[in-house]
Design goal:
Layout (H helix, E strand, L loop, with lengths): L1 H20 L19 H4 L6 H10 L18 H13 L5 H30 L2 H12 L13 H16 L3 H12 L5 H14 L4 H11 L1 H14 L4 H6 L5 H14 L1 H6 L2 H26 L2 H17 L4 H4 L5 H12 L4 H23 L6
């Protein structure tokens, strides 16, 4: 916790200094207005890009013509903006974009520090003490871990993943299913969390009726969102149709495959956003290489969730892949086990941690300035 607190204070100061010293970049053509707190640079840099959509949903709900988000925000899952809305109503900020931005940042940071505490508890139960400490450090300063502190769903979702694992390890299946339901109301890949719960329950020799009941409860967040869209807009698949407006698999994967194969120099030296994708793919390859250790040495539920998230996300999209891999908690545990086994090479451990911290800080600065690292 001390490491998490100190690292976040330092990161916030660096981002604040960067915004004070260098003006933010001009917005991209497809970027919604996302400077909600221009007079407060200590906070302003943590509510960019998709934060605008969550703020719009929290303020206007779904389908309001006044909402700046495409199709009235239907392309974003409801739980995180719903939490923002509730807190904003309690604090009198529900009609203020700036107030909602602050609420979103506060929720994300609260979930982040709760996640650090819970992750440390789980790691200490599964790994040697020093390896558990290294897992916690990697969790805190992963390259895209700055998203835990932005007005995004990352910290809420990873807390739900950790809560699900916590209850599964205690064989409290219904509580695990309920937390998985929250995950499925937060992100589409919450369905991978349900898969992990089902795998753990199957390993625990639960009968088929119990497995079906657990799956039903776990999927209720996702199903509830689809039912709402069906009742409100007469289109249960409206979420997927809105998402397609930002591109499909050909735009998010195949385009970059062709780019690397046919124009490799452009991939590295052309549009700087292509370099971000290259970094995403490089990180995904590292994560894929860790999966054998995840499967062999970790809790079955953690292994199942991690494999589903890493393989599924890597196959579906390379855009935003870095942050989509954050909730795959088995990666940090597996990496810590490997690093801990090399105790005679402390320089390697320290080097990995330092490199990850530098990358995370650089990406956080770019994000705060409005660059496309999302």
């Amino acid at each position: 916790m001390l490491f998490a607190i100190v690292s976040r204070i330092a990161l916030a100061v660096v981002v604040w200094l960067s915004l004070r010293a260098v003006p933010r970049l001009d917005s991209y053509p497809t970027q919604l207005p996302d400077s909600f707190l221009p007079d407060h640079p200590f906070l302003d840099g943590w509510a960019r890009w998709d934060a605008s959509h969550y703020i719009a949903v929290a303020r206007y709900g779904y389908g309001d013509p006044a909402s700046p988000s495409p199709d009235g925000g239907i392309g974003f899952f409801p739980l995180y903006p719903l939490l923002m809305r509730v807190v904003a109503l309690l604090t009198g900020q529900s009609d203020s974009n700036g107030g909602l931005a602050v609420v979103g940042i506060v929720i994300s940071n609260a979930c982040f520090f709760a996640s650090v505490w819970l992750f440390a508890r789980l790691a200490s139960q599964m790994l040697p003490v020093e390896a558990a400490r290294w897992a916690g450090r990697l969790f805190v300063v992963a390259p895209f871990a700055y998203f835990y502190n932005a007005a995004y769903t990352e910290s809420l979702f990873v807390l739900e993943v950790l809560g699900t694992v916590w209850f599964v390890r205690r064989e409290q299946w219904w509580r695990a299913a309920l937390v998985a339901a929250l995950a499925s109301a937060t992100r589409l890949v919450g369905l991978a969390v349900i898969g992990g719960v089902l795998y753990g329950a199957w390993r625990a020799r639960k009968r088929l009726p119990e497995l079906i009941a657990i799956a039903t409860v776990g999927a209720s967040g996702f199903v509830g969102f689809l039912l709402y869209l069906w009742i409100r807009f007469d289109d249960a698949l409206a979420y997927f149709e809105t998402q397609e407006e930002w591109g499909d698999w050909r735009d998010h994967v195949w385009f970059y495959v062709e780019l690397v194969l046919t124009r490799p120099r452009e991939a590295l030296g052309g549009d700087p956003r292509h370099l971000v994708i290259t970094g995403n793919v490089a990180l995904a390859l590292v994560c894929l290489a860790l999966l054998p250790t995840v499967v062999r040495r970790l809790d079955p539920t953690i292994a199942a969730i991690t494999v589903l998230l890493v393989v599924g996300q890597s196959a579906i999209t390379w855009v935003s892949l870095g942050r989509y891999l954050l909730p795959a908690i088995g990666l940090y545990l597996a990496a810590a086990l490997i690093i801990h086994s090399g105790v005679d090479r402390p320089w390697l451990r320290d080097g990995i941690l330092a490199c990850s911290t530098v990358i995370m800080t650089g990406l956080a600065i770019l994000y705060a300035h409005g660059f496309w690292v999302v």
